[in-house]
Amino acid sequence: MSSVDPITELQASLQDDLHAMNKIIESMMASESAPRIPEISNHIFSAGGKKLRPLLCLATARALGYGKDKHIMLAASIEFIHTATLLHDDVVDDSSTRRGKKTANVLWNNQSSILVGDFLFSRAFQLMVSTGSIEILQVLANTSAIIAESEVLQLSQVKNVNILIPTYMKIIDGKTAALFSAATKTGAMLTTENTTHIENFATYGRAIGLSFQLIDDYLDYKGRPSQMGKALGDDFNNAKLTFPLISALRKSDHQEKEFIKNTLIKEERDSEDFSKVVQIMEKYKTLEETKKTALKWALTANECLKKLPKNNITNLLEKMSKSIVKRSS
To answer: What span, in angstroms and rounded, lies between the C-alpha atoms of 207 and 27?
Structure first.
C-alpha cells in the first residue's frame, strides 16, 4: 500500500491544473494603484496550505471527464473566496498566527485585512462570471452569503454556554462545509447535466467539509502546534464553543459545568484553565466523540462516491476522505 498522502497524490495528478490556477491567482492579485493589495495577498498565499477546496473543484471536473479550461477559473474563484474569509476571520478572532506565520492584521492592520479580503471577494466574482454559467454563479453567490451568515451566527454564540450541538453543526455546515460542497458541485455542473452526479458530488463535498471542521475542533485541543503552525486552544482562548466543549458541557457534573462556564465568561483564559478543560473532555471522551463524528461524515462522503464513475481521481477522493480524519495539521 502506498504511504503517500492521498492529497499529495491528487495534487500530483492535477499539477498542471493547479499550476494554471496559481498563475491566474498571481495575475489577479496585482494592483498598481494599491500596492498593499499584492503585499497582503502574497503574504497569505505564500503561507502555503493544501488548497483543498479548489483541488476538490478541479478533481470533480476531471473525474467526470472535463476537457476544457473553465474549471481553472472556477477553482481560482473558490480559492479567492476561501482566502478572503481567512483574512476576515483573523480580524474577527484577533488571531496572531496562521500556518506558522504572523497574520496580515498583525503585520499591517485590521482595516487593510478587511479591505484586501473584500478585494479578493471581488476577484472571485469576476472569475465566476468568466465561467459563463448563471447557474454556477448562483451557487457560489448563495454560498458566499451562507458563509457570511454562518460567521455572524458563530459570533453571536461566543460565550453562549447553552449552545446545543445542532446549532453548532448548523454553524459549521455554513461556515466550512458550504464552500467544500460548492467546490464539488460547481466542478460537476461545469462538466455534466447529470443531476445525480452533481448532487452526489455536492453531498460528498459537504460531508468532507463537516469532517474536516470536526477534526479542526479536535486538533485545537489535541494537536501539535509545530505541525499546525499555530498554538493550541485558539477556539478556547476566543471563548468559542466547538463540538468537544459543547459535548463536555452537556455531560459534565454540576461542579465541572460551573468551572467551564466561569472560565468562558472571564476576560482571558490561561494554560491552567485549558488543561483542566481538556481533562474534563478526556473524562467524558468528548474528543473521541468528535473524531467518531468526523469519521461518520467521511463514511457518508464515500457512500456518495460509490454512485459515481470509478477512476483514479475518485479512488484518490475516497482515500482522501479517510485521511482527513487521521490528519494532524
So the answer is: 33
Asked if 305 and 318 count as a contact pair (C-beta separation under 8 A), the reply is yes
In whole angstroms, what is the distance from residue 205 CA to residue 201 CA?
A: 6
Distance CA 285, CA 279 (A): 10
| Residue partners of 293: CB distance under 8 A and separation at least 6 | 214, 243
CB-based contacts of 164-168 (< 8 A; 24+ apart in sequence): 164/246, 165/243, 165/246, 165/247, 165/250, 168/241, 168/242, 168/243, 168/246
How confident is the model over 60-95, as pLDDT tens digits? 999 999 999 999 999 999 999 999 999 999 998 888
**8 Å CB contact between 324 and 295:** no
Whether residue 1 is predicted with pLDDT greater than 50 in this model: the reply is no
Q: Which residues contact 326 (CB under 8 A, 6 or more apart)?
A: none
**The residue count for the chain:** 329
Give the closest residue to 95 by CA, choosing from 263, 231, 225, 222: 231
CATH of domain 6-326: 1.10.600.10
Cβ atoms of 249 and 241 within 8 Å: the answer is: yes
Band the pLDDT of 228: cuts 50, 70, 90: low
Spatial distance between the Cα atoms of 207 and 301, rounded to a whole number of angstroms: 5
Comparing CA positions, the residue from 96, 298, 60, 73 lying closest to residue 197 is 60
Instruction: Find, among 216, 201, 210, 200, the residue nearest to 170 by Cα.
Output: 210
Cell 488548497 maps to which residue? 51
**For residue 115, what is its C-alpha cell?**
479591505
Question: Which residues partner with 97 through β-bridges?
Answer: 102
CA 236, 238, 241, 242 dihedral sign is negative
Q: How far apart are CA 107 and CA 43, in angstroms?
A: 10
| pLDDT tens column, 52-61 | 999 999 999 9
Q: Which amino acid is at 199?
A: E
164 with 246: CB under 8 angstroms? yes
Whether residue 171 contacts residue 216, with contact meaning beta carbons closer than 8 Å, is answered with: no
